């Protein structure tokens, strides 16, 4: 069986898997990293949102063979280390606003929010309601109001 | 040690009974009998007026059904100073575990972080008192849990008093530490063993008055929030059970279809990662190293399918059957002084974000199940029967759920996992795919509500509502509760079970003269269930739209009209607050409007004021990728009277979620049934509210407490918010909507193929990074 090597949450990992297996299953079923959630495996619900080289992506829709040895994958578990703290400012904002209800979508929401704030800044502005309206992550509990407030607060401390 | 002395208490304060249970450390148990500890609930009398729901609602019924139960629930004090409690309910996001922790912390004078709440396994001895539903958890647990905690605290104080040789009245307890004369202290942990009882002993305790509360009634963050934001919270699919490999099911192209033959089982079994392929009742199960390889196997399977249970049904055929089944009105129309209206509510999906899943390990002589189950006792009994095992040989663990909305009242997935594990002879971690959840999962059934109102001389003479619905499945245990307590019901007569539920949950809050609200069901074999309550969102939406029509016919403002006709003083108070705080009646641009909706249920009262923008530039606003925009609710204000608000922050969260559900139900989300199956297969087909549909301004006002006991909260906001959004839409467009959601007539997506039943995932994810 082919082997695949990449950096996962700051550590190099090598895993055996068929080339076409989507990265989400490699993370969850083979490596036991369960922060990225399975909500649809159709690149629609965004519950598995993680980062590749600092950008948001959905591992349900990437074949493991498309991940290069130099790629750095960050899941919710590895987000705090990217800022060298116990919690990323966006995670802290999520706590401050008591955003979560069931919590299933929230790892993906937080990872998407961090990338969206950075994307806005790269474009030369702070995150706006219009930017937040572009987020596609489903929250079936309907926590959107607190998500919106937390993103703005988290952006301030990022 | 001696039995604790009875503390002096004011005569007027009620005392509550519990038991010291023989255990290595202090354990206090109470009977799970809400009614016994809450005699304010009147169910003995059977009045003819007002309507049943006002005196005796669904939650009361559940409480009453629980009364004969002898099973005990217990608070355990540990040597590390923590208190633990295994709650016989499911946590699916509603915040129940946080509220329970608050009750224990309050009555024990223990910090929140020292309270540990877990979910109890199925406990058959609790009979039907292990059901999470009907927004009943807080109402049924409030007194028992506090009683157990209060007894534990009292026992710890008495133990310290005995050890120190001083009267208990000279001790105080705070933050898990008991302080005595001279400043000497002892932690709860240091007393946990000494306070343990050698035998089970009845004890009574007095609960704190609400004026002394420092935890209950104060905003509290969720106890699992840290685990959630760090990705550590374990849901069913995150559990690692030895050898329980990923398992999925290829499903037939119609609801409840069957397997005639698998034509290439050996070839599929030889695919990479695949270990097993077996036919089951409603599909072909495949087990493999990863879920992705199970989906590959589903692509490759060649199966000949047998018919399902509703193959001939589509939206139009179901609608025709509902129309034919409507119970006639009894009051004839009064010429021009009559409003007749008919509203259709499409099928909707109660699927949470977490796909249905369950782990099963079935052996020849025993079985173990892990699943999110709101009625684990029924699951245990029925899975045992299905497997041919004694009930006690089936262990059922309740796991944290990623949402429920009614779905987890049923144990379909756990039963299927058990069937697969038994047939394969191996443990399985079964997940339904997203398309399975929409197409074969439970739905909230289509219904048609007809309303006729007669009015004259400034009065409303009669209000009749006839609700016809595809049968809602109550086969999850609530039925057993009702059957067991039918003799106590104030509704009685020859009503069916569903009609009984309808009468217990529906109640017009207006002085509208002769008022009747009746349900009729059409028994079609869809997989149905409740969805963040049962009938109220549809019934109340129809009612409030007609109330607005009545107001217009009488030349009155909608809020003023409601003030004049409301019978319910708590509803009047929330209405007035919403009108004032929401600036009702302000000038708004053409194409935008306010709407108001009211509803009282679960002993709570809610008013929602919504503002909607139906102008073309908003309706047609662009969105990248698939999705629908449509009218936008720009502002929503929820005013809630929850009796006693245990956790205002959690209550606010439930109100916010209720509004987002309502927006979806009125504007965007539904299932289109065609030839025996829903066309929807993904979240880009089933348009639940997204950020771009959500109001930028959503505010919740919690009224001052009107009671010492909490109302239900989980489902409370949906119905009034549905009504408010619908009424706002009607006023903004000048046309009363009669079919919901309003976009149901247009299919706004390209349906996924019916076969294979689960599509393989895309591969272009790296083209969409940001």
Question: How would you characterize the overall build of this protein?
Answer:
Chain A: Keywords: 2Fe-2S, Iron, Iron-sulfur, Metal-binding. Chain A: Residues 75-152 form the [2Fe-2S]-binding domain. Chain A: Residues 6-55 form the 2Fe-2S ferredoxin-type domain. The complex is a heterodimer of chains A (158) and B (770). With 158 residues, chain A is of the alpha+beta class. Chain A has two domains: 3-78, Roll (Ubiquitin-like (UB roll)), CATH 3.10.20.30; 81-157, DNA polymerase, domain 1. Helices cover 33% and strands 13% of the residues of chain A. A five-stranded mixed sheet of chain A has the order 2-1-5-3-4, with helices on one face. The N and C termini of chain A lie far apart (42 Å). Helices cover 29% and strands 23% of the residues of chain B. By secondary structure, chain B is α+β, with helices and mostly antiparallel strands. Chain B contains 21 helices and 31 strands. The chains are: A alpha+beta (158), B alpha+beta (770). The interface between A and B is large, with 78 and 79 residues.
What characteristics describe this protein?
heterodimer; A: 158 residues; alpha+beta; Ubiquitin-like (UB roll); DNA polymerase, domain 1; five-stranded mixed β-sheet; 13% strand; globular; B: 770 residues; Aldehyde Oxidoreductase, domain 4; 3 domains; seven-stranded mixed β-sheet; six-stranded mixed β-sheet; 29% helix; disordered N terminus
């Amino acid at each position: 069986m082919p082997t695949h090597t990449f950096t996962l949450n700051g550590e190099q990992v090598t895993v055996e898997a068929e080339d076409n297996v989507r990265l989400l299953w490699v993370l969850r079923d083979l490596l036991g990293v369960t922060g990225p959630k399975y909500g649809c495996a159709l690149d629609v619900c965004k519950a598995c949102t993680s980062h590749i080289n600092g950008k948001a992506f959905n591992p349900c829709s990437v074949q493991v063979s498309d991940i290069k040895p130099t790629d750095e994958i960050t899941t919710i578990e590895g987000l705090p280390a990217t800022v060298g703290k116990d919690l990323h400012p966006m995670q802290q904002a999520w706590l401050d606003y008591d955003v979560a209800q069931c919590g299933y979508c929230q790892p993906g929401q937080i990872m998407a929010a961090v990338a969206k704030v950075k994307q806005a800044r790269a474009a030369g502005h702070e995150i706006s309601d219009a930017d937040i309206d572009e987020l596609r992550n489903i929250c079936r509990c309907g926590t959107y109001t607190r998500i919106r407030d937390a993103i703005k607060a988290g952006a301030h401390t990022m | 040690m001696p039995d604790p002395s009875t503390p002096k208490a004011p005569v007027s304060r009620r005392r509550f009974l519990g038991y010291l249970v023989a255990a290595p450390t202090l354990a206090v148990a109470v009977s799970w009998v809400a009614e016994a500890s809450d005699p304010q609930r009147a169910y003995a009398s059977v009045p003819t007026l007002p309507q049943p729901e006002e005196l005796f609602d669904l939650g009361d019924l559940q409480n009453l059904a629980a009364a004969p139960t002898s099973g005990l629930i217990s608070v355990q004090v540990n040597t590390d100073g923590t208190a633990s409690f295994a709650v016989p309910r499911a946590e699916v996001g509603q915040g129940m575990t946080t509220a329970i922790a608050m009750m224990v912390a309050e009555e024990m004078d223990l910090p929140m972080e020292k309270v540990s709440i877990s979910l109890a396994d199925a406990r058959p001895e609790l009979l039907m008192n292990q059901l999470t539903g009907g927004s009943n958890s807080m109402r049924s647990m409030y007194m028992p849990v506090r009683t157990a905690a209060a007894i534990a605290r009292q026992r710890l104080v008495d133990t310290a008093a005995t050890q120190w040789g001083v009267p208990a009245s000279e001790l105080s307890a705070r933050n898990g530490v008991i302080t005595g004369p001279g400043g000497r202290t002892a932690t709860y942990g240091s007393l946990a063993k000494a306070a343990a009882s050698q035998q089970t002993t009845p004890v009574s305790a007095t609960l704190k008055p609400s004026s002394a509360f420092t935890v209950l009634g104060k905003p509290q963050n969720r106890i699992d929030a840290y685990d959630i934001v760090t990705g550590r919270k374990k849901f069913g699919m995150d559990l690692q059970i030895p050898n329980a490999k990923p398992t999925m099911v290829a499903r037939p192209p119609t609801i409840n279809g069957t397997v005639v033959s698998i034509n290439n089982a050996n070839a599929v079994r030889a695919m990479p990662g695949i270990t097993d392929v077996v036919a089951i009742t409603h599909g072909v199960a495949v087990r493999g190293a990863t879920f992705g390889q199970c989906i590959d196997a589903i692509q490759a399977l060649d199966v000949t399918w047998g018919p399902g249970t509703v193959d001939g049904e589509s939206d139009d055929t179901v609608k025709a059957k509902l129309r034919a089944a409507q119970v006639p009105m009894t009051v004839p129309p009064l010429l021009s002084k009559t409003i007749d209206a008919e509203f259709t509510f499409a099928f909707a999906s109660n699927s949470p974000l977490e796909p249905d899943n369950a782990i099963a390990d079935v052996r020849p002589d025993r079985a173990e199940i892990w699943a999110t189950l709101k009625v684990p006792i029924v699951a245990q009994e029925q899975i045992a029967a299905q497997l041919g095992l004694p009930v006690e040989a089936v262990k059922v663990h309740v796991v944290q759920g990623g949402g429920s909305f009614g779905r987890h009242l049923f144990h379909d997935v756990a039963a299927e996992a058990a069937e697969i594990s038994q047939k394969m002879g191996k443990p399985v971690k079964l997940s339904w795919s997203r398309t399975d959840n929409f197409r074969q999962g439970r739905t909230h059934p289509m219904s048609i509500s007809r309303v006729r109102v007669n009015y004259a001389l400034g009065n409303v003479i009669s209000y009749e509502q006839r609700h016809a619905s595809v049968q809602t499945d109550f086969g999850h245990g609530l039925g057993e509760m009702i059957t067991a307590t039918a003799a106590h019901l104030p509704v009685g007569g020859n009503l069916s079970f569903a009609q009984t539920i309808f009468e217990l949950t529906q109640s017009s809050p207006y002085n509208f003269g002769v008022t009747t609200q009746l349900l009729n069901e059409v028994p079609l074999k869809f997989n149905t269930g409740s969805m963040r309550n049962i009938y109220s969102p549809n019934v109340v939406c129809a009612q409030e739209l007609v109330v607005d029509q009545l107001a217009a016919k009488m030349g009155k403002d909608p809020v003023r009209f409601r003030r004049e006709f409301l019978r319910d003083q708590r509803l009047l108070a929330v209405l007035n607050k919403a009108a004032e705080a929401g600036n009702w009646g302000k000038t708004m641009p053409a194409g935008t409007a306010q709407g108001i909706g009211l509803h009282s249920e679960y002993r709570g009262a809610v008013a929602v004021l919504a503002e909607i923008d139906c102008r073309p530039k908003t309706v047609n606003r662009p969105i990248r990728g698939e999705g629908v925009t449509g009218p936008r609710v720009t502002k929503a204000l929820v005013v809630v009277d929850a009796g006693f608000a245990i956790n205002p922050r959690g209550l606010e969260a439930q109100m916010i979620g209720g509004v987002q559900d309502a927006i979806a139900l009125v504007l965007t989300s539904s299932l289109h049934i065609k030839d025996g199956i829903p066309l929807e297969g993904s979240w880009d087909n089933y348009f639940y509210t997204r950020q771009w549909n959500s109001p930028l301004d959503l505010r919740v006002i919690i009224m001052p407490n009107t009671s010492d006991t909490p109302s239900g909260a989980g489902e409370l906001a949906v119905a009034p918010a549905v009504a408010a959004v619908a009424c706002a839409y009607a006023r903004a467009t000048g046309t009363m909507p009669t079919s919901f959601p309003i976009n149901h007539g247009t299919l706004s997506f390209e349906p996924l193929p019916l076969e294979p039943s689960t599509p393989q995932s895309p591969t272009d994810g790296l083209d969409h990074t940001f």
